[in-house]
UniProtKB/TrEMBL annotation:
Keyword Oxidoreductase listed: yes
Domain 3-hydroxyacyl-CoA dehydrogenase NAD binding: start-end pairs: 4-183
Pathway(s) served: Lipid metabolism; butanoate metabolism
Family to which this protein belongs: Belongs to the 3-hydroxyacyl-CoA dehydrogenase family.
Gene3D superfamilies linked: N-(1-d-carboxylethyl)-l-norvaline Dehydrogenase, domain 2 (1.10.1040.10), NAD(P)-binding Rossmann-like Domain (3.40.50.720)
3-hydroxyacyl-CoA dehydrogenase C-terminal domain boundaries: 186-282
Top-level taxon in the UniProt lineage: Bacteria
Glycoprotein listed as a keyword: no
Name used for this protein in its record: 3-hydroxyacyl-CoA dehydrogenase family protein
InterPro entries attached to this UniProt entry: 3-OHacyl-CoA_DH, 3-OHacyl-CoA_DH_CS, 3-OHacyl-CoA_DH_NAD-bd, 3HC_DH_C, 6-PGluconate_DH-like_C_sf, 6PGD_dom2, NAD(P)-bd_dom_sf
Keywords assigned: Oxidoreductase
Amino acid sequence: MARKLAVIGAGLMGSGIAQVSARAGWDVVLRDVTDAALTRGTDGIRASYDKFVAKGKLEAADAEAALKRISTTTDLGAAADADVVVEAVFERIDVKQEIFRELDRLVRDDAVLASNTSAIPITKIAAVTEHPERVVGTHFFSPVPMMQLCELVRGYKTSDETLAKAREFAESTGKTCIVVNRDVAGFVTTRLISALVVEAAKLHESGVASAEDIDTACKLGFGHAMGPLATADLTGVDILLHAAENIYTESQDEKFAPPEAMRRMVDAGDIGRKSGQGYYTY
Ligand SMILES: NC(=O)c1ccc[n+]([C@@H]2O[C@H](COP(=O)([O-])OP(=O)(O)OC[C@H]3O[C@@H](n4cnc5c(N)ncnc54)[C@H](O)[C@@H]3O)[C@@H](O)[C@H]2O)c1
């Protein structure tokens, strides 16, 4: 019998996780608070499968079968018999804690409760449950069907068994996992990109090199697909500033302290591609 996955939140990440999991044979129930959100989520999944079919990377019959494995609901109780639950709702600790409190009461004893949070400590989410040992971070990347990485995050009390089950789940969807052994702010991935972006912003602000040359150094010198300042513009300078500030606050490590000019850019609304101006003009 196929194993059951419950995905809480049918937004960008939740629908992507549902999509790759159904494709991998999981029976998926996708939960959101409104029917409109669920329809948006499943429409996105269907459109994405169609693209894979059009490119010859997926058989139409397999796409159809995967879609049939996804059901939708507004009832959190549908997670009661799931083997794995992945939460992918808004990045707000109060909202996530409320969901984990409820899930903790209703899921099977051997279920894994995972959060897709990109920055909230897993330990703080797990702390509201009676069983923090079964709570873990499964940090997928966007767009989920394309990006190969899943960052597994151990909370302070996550058990080895939970981590192993989370790995098995993520690998079944075709992802490669890395393990974050200590629940530090920014995990591994956001710490690395924050350190690089903050240093690039400092070099830029102090006139050491132009944005183009800093990015070219990373692309041609280190083989990065994209330079750090172009990455900041794409992700949103505001988002990366917030991430770096959060890591700096938690770690008190100066290398994550964002430079003043970066803050002023954000104050002025120059936050990258979405505003038309960031380190580059669009
Ligand atoms: N967007 C990214 O690039 C990215 C990458 C990695 C991780 N994340 C993390 O993944 C999570 C989800 O991000 P997203 O970009 O998919 O957000 P999103 O805004 O696209 O989707 C969030 C969804 O959660 C739903 N929701 C809110 N409260 C709910 C509840 N109580 N029960 C069920 N559904 C509820 C909303 O209706 C919405 O559909 C966040 O924690 C985010 O930090 C995002």
